[in-house]
Amino acid sequence: MRLISVRWLLLFSMLGLFGLSSLKPIQAQIPAHVSHARVAASTNMFNWDTFQPIPLARFEAGGAIVGDSLYVIGGFYTNQVQATDTVFAYNISTNQWRICANIPEAITHAPVVADGDLIYVLGGYIGDSPGGSTQHVWVYNTITNAWSRGPDLPEDRGAAGATKLGREIHFFGGAHRRDRQLEEWDSDQHFVLNLDSQVWRTAAPMPNARNHLGAATLNGSVYAIGGQYLAAESTSSQVEVDRYDPVSDSWTRVADLPKGRGHITSSVFEVDGRIMVVGGSVNGGDYGLASADVMLYDPNDNVWMKLTSIPGVRKTPVGAAYGNKILVTTGGYVPNPEMWIGQLEDHWELARTLPISLGEASGGIIGNKMYLVGESNGATAAFDLGANSWNAGLAQRPYKSHSHSAQVWNQRLYLFGGAGTSAGKVQIYQPASNTWSQGAAIPFATMAASSALIDEKIYVAGGIVSGNTSNYHAVYDPATNTWTSLPTMPLARNGAAGGTDGRYFYLFGGRASGTTGAASADVQIYDPLSQTWTSSASDQTIPPLPQARADLGQAIWYKGEFYLLGGADQASVSDRVDVYNPVTKTWRSVAAMPTARQGHAPMLVGGRIYVPAGGTQATSSQSRIFEVYNPGAATQAPATATPTEIPTNTPTNTATNTPTNTATATNTPTSTATPTALPTNTATATPSEIPTNTPTNTATAMPTVLPTNTPTATSSEIPTNTPTNTATAMPTELPTATDVPTAIITNPATATITTIPTHTPTELPTATFEPTQPINHRTQIYLPWASK
What we know:
The chain is mainly β. The chain has 2 helices and 61 strands. The chain has a 5-stranded antiparallel beta sheet, with no helix packed on it. The chain has a 4-stranded antiparallel beta sheet with strand order 1-30-29-28, with no helix packed on it. Strands 7-8-10-11 form a 4-stranded antiparallel beta sheet, with no helix packed on it. InterPro entries: Gal_Oxase/kelch_b-propeller, Kelch-typ_b-propeller, Kelch_1.
């Protein structure tokens, strides 16, 4: 009894010093929130804001979004790689964490999948590192705050990938290891759980057996992303990305990651029709190198793009998307508590500066690269979307002028017309051979013309011909290298933004005379089928541009709307971004450009508008500026809490229990199917809301018990030079030798114990697992590197 009293006294003392508001980063300090005062009034700049940290720091945890909460489950919570059974939920609307019922066994490396109000925790490694892999499946009911046993995996696995598609959970890859051993073999097996029948079946195995991989569902397909072999995290991080088609039961390799990446089991998720990968581990060092990279995959363009990095490097973070917000928490070489939230939608990002200054730029996207040429430099520059790097040493075009119109066809970049000797010329760049060639000349020797690609043909209109603004119009067939003249434009224009919705050829704005004349707000539309023009000048139902301007580059067509960015009039350069809906015939304005420019080259890829080069003055000017815009929806997304700054010292405790933000939000789960009923004889507990800054309440909310005999975990997972930091390492009860603990502490302050029923076979379906093919394990050569 005396020992118990001493233990609780020690726990309360530690909790008193551990007030939620005094938590600090363990590995890397978070930089103070930077105010973008210069652009705050007119534009939205992307930033990773710091929110309330998780009360118990950890890494190698699992997590999932249900409703308006992010649930973080298990993981390692000390520098000595000890596992925890604690579960916390972060309410995105109130910026508060609450304690949830503990998972029945301390677990790490388990993929977590949400199904309605239920959360499935599948396999993983049990206990302190290096724990053995398990077949266990645990199911958490977020409504009743109770855990129950789900149908066991056909085989034990840790560090596998799992994702939900329809009414099934796909589970694949991972590794097998015995307790106190490192990974013994990797698996390529692919198991599928029917959520209605609660029965497992086999599906086509992965092409490449690996562990510590990520998984996601997108457009009816399942993706297996990255990973590593065995415990060789410093040398074997994989670039491979495989897509599974459930209809054909087959895998196809798609675009590789730009860099091999593992330890991403809980930081791969879907974002607006794309897949995001946050942090993870890349090759290097003794135990792999933690990464701060944020990568985005677009299946339509089959490209990976590098986004703004998170504030600190993180292996095994928990990441998820909620509405238009992206949440990232925990992870690292040692336990970390930070919570970062960012919003891509309708926000701008600063991209890598151009290696050369360019004005009146033109370019196009081919594969995973953006090609760019422009005024003041004869170079051909290429930007690698995934590697986030420039190469300005490619072959130079034959006519090194500017004011070209550009289109991409058949993996080639076509430049139409231009100033000086390039007027009326067609220059063609082929990246595969890094060579330029010439096509048939335009019927009129133009510069500053407008163009669009429609049904494999390129329409070119307007521009300046022999010093006069033209209304000439022709179509080019790149397959036959021939031109055909077409009906002239109603209004002669140069420097107009050309674009297409796939059927019509649109021209927005432009100038009626000269390269510095007054800008126009007119909209002109050509119908290739009827070979007729209409314009806002003759048709009052077509609204003109909200602001007259020219030299806007291409008009970007995205999700049923045209985006018109920047441009200039005689005296000034615009930062406006106006969006036109041709169905409703309405304009709206979105976040302005961070830097007003004209003569830039907007290009769309992966649902992002890349805006490089251009001038910041209405007269001839160049720049190395490169910015990226993430288009957003017309409606507002769910509200979220105000960022919470992490203090650098322990603040004076105030007796307040008021949330930092009382804004509410509604978030409808993506799955509308009714969850399968689980056994009702489960333990229940009422979640306790953790106030933002009330250390005294924290003591009653932590579901931890001091261990009576916690062995020191000697693991090669943690580098020997990692500084010891116990500020966030709260002790937790270690699992017993039995598979299913018979009790769980739900309120340590009152020592109330709720019994968890022992799992019995009658709770599970009577169907048995019968492999449809012999199980084939792909064995890798063992390498003596540690793995978390």
